Amino acid sequence: MSNKSNNKVLLIDTCVWINLAQDTSSKPLVMAIKNLIENNLIKLIVPTIIKDEFERNKDRIIDISKKKLSQDIRKVKNIIEQYSNSGDKDTVINGLDDVNHKLPMMADTISEQSDTIWDILSTAETIAIPDNVKIQASDRALLKKAPFHKSKNSMADALIIELFFNATLTDEQSDFYFITHNPKDFSSESDNRIHHEDYNEYFSKDKITYSTNLPFVINEIAPDILDETTFEYDWDDESRGLYEILDTIDMLTDKIWYNRHCARAYDVENGNILIVDGDDYDVYNHQHIRKDIWEGALKSAKNKEEKYPNELGPWSDFEWGMLSGKLSALRWVIGEEWDMLDT
Questions:
Q1: Domain boundary among 233, 267, 293
Q2: Is the pTM value of this prediction over 0.70?
């Protein structure tokens, strides 16, 4: 974009703040935002509904994260049972001790990170929703334009983005960024990395940017700050705990399975693979798939879309190779053979 001013104005959606609070590895990014605000390099648009929603979810974020950590401990205990008659049992128990040692620190980090985000939102100027924005959001609902194109109540999302658009109309000097992790309401159905076509009137302008990638935006505004904050807050390069490895394996397996499912869905839609009843199914015919199995696969795909919004591709060949390589390496770490990529 050309002729940019030095004024950078960001509206960061609630879901982004919540994801940052839950992810302990995001501390450098949170601190980079805080530093940019304190040095007047960026300004936040904070609608009252974003601040209120984060406050309502703040304690829940911490509780959910603690429960997730407890679930990870149970995974480790299951591993111990599997190795109970193996010479590796002591190794696994030592791993459990390591996990137990890290859990309180991780829970404290999540709590501390939530507090930092709350400080950022609390010190920013909070903007109430004016009547004209409420009217514009209502008009979107009547016309079934995004974010109402999914036939659900998206009034809060509509108010947030209309407030953002309203701010761009009253300030022609600044560069505006709308950052979200909510592709269902705001992104194009053909590519969730770009805005929905119903928002073309605004995001087609030079100084207004739609993004689902907050680190990319921060790097564009201040190219060195993430490196600096990462060095300051993320220098301790300790080994990963077993529970973290298992959780990552589950995530990578889900994402690779989903992309394979999409390839099979393409073949089904184009008649290359036939959906058949059980009596007609031939296990050796790779151009057949049983109807009940396919219906189960569709349900699983929907669950993964809800579990990993904006994280399921489309992948380039390089990204696909990276995903497969990571899964192969992590499975090797826990004792499986190289190139084990079954999903």
A1: 233
A2: no
